[in-house]
């Protein structure tokens, strides 16, 4: 990492722990800062704070006392999950105290190029694809995944050498806390309405996403989804070199024409050869191909890599087959849009959909067009009655209500025949029955594996 001196003997407040906060605190401590960590969780239930204390880092736990700001800090490094409406954050900003996120620190110490990926949907899949493509035929260095994908950016940047690339998934929350952050290549997969409870308005959400290119120059490249008029308009305001991708028209980047994928007129592969289904995954692949080509990855390596990529866990992930029935885990589909995208990748006449979960008060009228033609639907959780109504409106003949994901797998298999597909794509959050979407997806996989053992 770069040995910077910017933080030597400066008082820095790290607000909120979790993985990124711990990494930021340790890095700042190593860089000579006088670090105070403040976390809401009580000390006796806070192993992260206990660990930092043993390193000689000051910790304040059990709340976010505004009085901390009387201590003349030079800046705050904030956990992305803490909203800007937090009283301590609001007070800091009124004092013109810089409030950064950990990805800014990562950029400041990184010796290698950063490829930043953001968007409403597809970030993790696209980030994973890019990492695989850049490592597939690599002779020196490594493409290292970082950021919102689960590896603290500052920790990865500290370990990376000049020969590496950091492929960094970035949320809107993280991008709100940047100052000098400048990726060599940026990707915006798409922009839809999301996280309005955090950002307050769609305009503020879009502004946060678009911040990824704030410091980019003509020698940098930004990969944009040309299917979205909004991104076409925003592209007029960036200094970066624009590389578009589209499934709808031929562009000066990656595009689909007649079921074939091209990059700047060079044939890459058939869309049907992609290892993951769905129109959204074609878009993700196009974005990843743009980055791979910018990094001079050969076409045959791109094709081979994307053919065998079967998805990120819980995101339209192929998980197995039982007597001719294929199973896909899309537990990450916690909203209607994500399920619509998943449904677009399958033949509805042989598709059995498993859906349901936390009731957030919305109806499922928007989902009805995407449900039409689905062979059967198995519903569970708080929203099963609302989804039942949508399924009836869509004309689905076989609708079954069940207890949870585990029983849904059994019900779906009992109804299925050879060559059917059983897809978990809930269109809802998991919190009514499962602590998170990952555990819901694991329950689906476990139920399938138990069924496989029985059906041997």
TrEMBL record:
Coiled coil: none annotated. GO terms for molecular function: ATP binding; UDP-N-acetylmuramoylalanine-D-glutamate ligase activity. Belongs to the MurCDEF family. Pathway: Cell wall biogenesis; peptidoglycan biosynthesis. InterPro entries: Mur-like_cat_sf (IPR036565), Mur_ligase_C (IPR004101), Mur_ligase_C_dom_sf (IPR036615), Mur_ligase_cen (IPR013221), MurD (IPR005762). The lineage of its organism: Bacteria, Bacillati, Bacillota, Bacilli, Lactobacillales. It comes from the Bacteria. One of its GO terms (cellular component) is cytoplasm. This is UDP-N-acetylmuramoylalanine--D-glutamate ligase. It comes from Enterococcus moraviensis ATCC BAA-383. One of its GO terms (biological process) is regulation of cell shape. Keywords: ATP-binding, Cell cycle, Cell division, Cell shape, Cell wall biogenesis/degradation, Cytoplasm, Ligase, Nucleotide-binding, Peptidoglycan synthesis. Residues 117-292 form the Mur ligase central domain. Residues 314-428 form the Mur ligase C-terminal domain. Its EC number is 6.3.2.9. Its main location: cytoplasm. It catalyses: UDP-N-acetyl-alpha-D-muramoyl-L-alanine + D-glutamate + ATP = UDP-N-acetyl-alpha-D-muramoyl-L-alanyl-D-glutamate + ADP + phosphate + H(+).
């Amino acid at each position: 990492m770069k040995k910077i001196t910017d933080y030597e003997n400066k008082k820095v407040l790290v607000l909120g722990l979790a993985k990124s906060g711990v990494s930021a605190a340790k890095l700042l401590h190593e860089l000579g800062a006088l670090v105070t960590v403040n976390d809401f969780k009580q000390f006796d239930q806070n192993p992260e704070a206990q660990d930092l204390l043993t390193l000689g880092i000051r910790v304040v736990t059990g709340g976010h006392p505004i009085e901390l700001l009387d201590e003349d800090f030079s800046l705050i490094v904030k956990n992305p999950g803490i909203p800007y409406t937090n009283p301590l954050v609001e007070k800091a900003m009124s004092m013109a105290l810089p409030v950064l996120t950990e990805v800014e620190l990562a950029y400041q110490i990184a010796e290698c190029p950063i490829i930043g990926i953001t968007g409403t949907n597809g970030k993790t899949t696209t980030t994973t694809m890019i990492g695989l493509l850049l490592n597939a035929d690599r002779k020196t260095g490594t493409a290292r995944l970082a950021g919102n994908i689960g590896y603290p950016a500052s920790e990865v940047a500290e370990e990376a050498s000049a020969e590496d690339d950091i492929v960094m998934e970035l949320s809107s929350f993280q991008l709100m806390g940047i100052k000098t952050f400048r990726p060599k290549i940026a990707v915006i997969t798409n922009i839809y309405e999301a996280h309005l409870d955090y950002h307050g308005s769609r305009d503020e959400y879009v502004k946060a996403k678009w911040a990824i290119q704030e410091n980019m120059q003509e020698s940098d490249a930004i990969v944009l989804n040309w299917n979205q008029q909004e991104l076409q308009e925003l592209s007029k305001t960036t200094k970066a070199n624009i590389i578009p991708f589209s499934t709808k028209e031929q562009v000066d980047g990656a595009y689909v024409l007649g079921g074939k994928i091209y990059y700047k007129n060079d044939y890459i592969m058939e869309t049907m050869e992609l290892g993951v289904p769905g129109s959204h995954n074609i878009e993700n692949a196009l974005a990843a191909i743009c980055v791979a080509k910018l990094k001079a990855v050969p076409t045959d390596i791109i094709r081979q890599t994307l053919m065998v990529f079967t998805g990120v866990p819980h995101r339209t992930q192929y998980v197995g087959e039982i007597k001719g029935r294929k199973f896909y885990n899309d537990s990450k589909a916690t909203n209607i849009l994500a399920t619509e995208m998943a449904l677009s990748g399958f033949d509805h006449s042989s598709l059995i959909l498993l859906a349901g979960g936390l009731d957030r008060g919305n109806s499922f009228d928007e989902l009805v067009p995407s449900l039409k033609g689905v062979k059967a639907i198995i519903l569970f959780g708080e929203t099963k009655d609302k989804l039942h109504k949508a399924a009836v409106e869509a004309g689905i003949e076989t609708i079954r209500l069940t207890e949870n994901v585990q029983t849904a797998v059994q019900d779906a298999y009992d109804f299925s025949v050879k060559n059917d597909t059983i897809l978990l794509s809930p269109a809802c959050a998991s919190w009514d029955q499962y602590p998170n979407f990952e555990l819901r997806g694991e329950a689906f996989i476990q139920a399938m594996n138990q069924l496989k053992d029985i059906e041997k």
